[in-house]
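Justification of computing resources. Each target in the renewal requires a structure prediction run like the one illustrated here; the chain below, 295 residues long, is used simply to show the kind of job we budget for.
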Amino acid sequence: MCGVDIRGSAPGTRELTVCLPGHLVEQVHAILLTGGSTFGLEAAGGVMQYLESRGVGFAAGKIRIPIVPAAVVFDLAIGSARARPNPGMARWACQNASAEIAEGSVGAGTGATVGKLFGMSNATKGGVGFASQSLVRSAVVQALAVVNAFGDVVDPASSHIVAGARATAEAFEFAGTSEQMFQGRAHKGFGVTNTTLVVVMTNALLDKLQATKVAQMAQDGLARAVQPVHTQFDGDLVFALSVGQKRADLNTLGTAAAEVTARAILRAVKTAKSLGGVPSCRELEVRKSKLEIGK
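Resulting structure tokens:
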């Protein structure tokens, strides 16, 4: 069972209507998060091919049609703009899936970046992050986040910027995107190149309306960890999946969803690696330490 909530103004998606209440199809069979802007949505065909080969899908007469909602981030400004996910890559990903959750600069997070107020040269590397929260009666809520935000990533516990825009390409400290915008120092070229995508998953039993509510509450996690968030330049979107039969309070599930979403976003930037000339927050920390030692 799947619900969805979109808060950003520039989403790139496929098959989202099946996640909305009132539609015939009640269940989805996979979720695809991908890079490559709208070109990358083609990769959903590979997921469908893999599921069809296993007899998974919505029964439609003699065939089964896999239902695969998908969402994409714009990452064509880093590396080669011609390097885009395709159906073959998606089939490979399905065939090689495991219980190990890869984080950082992998998959849809390979070209992800954050803090693009002053352009890509002054941004910080984003990526993929995962977090999990156990509840009573064996219920679990988890989140997988692809962080490619216009804004900065902030640690909610300390309010400190963990990854974000820098005033110059050589700087290792963060400028503070919101404050820079308040001062009228916005760069005119940041464009619609951003998005944070989240999939919240639980083994608690939910119908489509309840899953949608969990997705809505999970958006609070984005607001805690990304500043600013839900801008005209972002396509921020949260899926919520129910894959079990556990009983749990809906409000508790939504609260946990916001918590794991914020934690997954932090994990995404903390585990990211430098790529395409865009430094990770870990590399910036190393630069700062070396400078302080030199002094």
